[in-house]
Design brief:
- By secondary structure, the chain is mainly alpha-helical.
- The protein has two domains: 4-103, Multidrug-efflux Transporter Regulator, Chain: A, Domain 2, CATH 1.10.1660.10; 107-258, no CATH class.
- 66% of the residues lie in helices and 3% in strands.
- The chain has 13 helices and four strands.
- Strands 1-2-4-3 form a four-stranded antiparallel beta sheet.
- Helix 1 crosses helix 3.
Amino acid sequence: MLTISRLAAYAGVTVRAVRHYHRIGLLPEPERDHSGYRTYDAAAVVRLIRIHALAAAGVPLARVQELLEADPEEFAASVRAIDKELRAEIRRLQGTRERLAKLAAGEQLALPQSVVDYLDRLRGLGVEERYIELERDGWIMIAAQVPDLIDAVIAKKHEELDNPDMVRLYQLVSGALDWSADDSRIVEVADILERLLIRAMAAGEADAGRVGGKLTDVMDDQFVDLLDTTMLETSPVAERLMAMLAERGWKGWTRVERVPPHP
């Protein structure tokens, strides 16, 4: 007759594991002998080895009991069922790992791949990371509001980057976070923005004097105000730029409208 420590050693498990199997009912607890010790026989060794082999093979402990008691046909069917469940779990875990890898890359926490690719293109143009982060946050909010439109919007943004004016605009605003409100380069930014707005209107990307088209039309006014306010809070330059554009007859940032110029 064997002590619990000898039983564990023969089966290749720990004493703690044996006690755990007792608690969950996988391994029957023997009666104590006259000295107060539990003793085990060869049948307990065999059962414990089988339990350990099944657990080591990946069988959930909740399923071990049914396999221990199954006939050969039932055993094979149960193993196939467990294997199917494990393969599904592996696919789920692989998907989780892929999502975690994307999150580790930084930007795919709440952004579709199209926006991530666009931000990477801006980096390739030399746009500073601080500005990239501001633009990223804006796209996170927009993508959450119009998930069905975001890929088409980003495709249009890629087309716009073929315009030298747009590239120059990004190069300027990238460093504008450190400008003062009276920096002379703000005039160049305003000139470029106005050329781009006029070009958009000429291309028919406007409705009743509004530039922005399909995207801004589906955004409610409160959300548009939120985006505009966020932009204005980034730098003193933003407020002056909006004032300059208003003087030239342009109102808004996210949803731009042609209005009579300020006197």
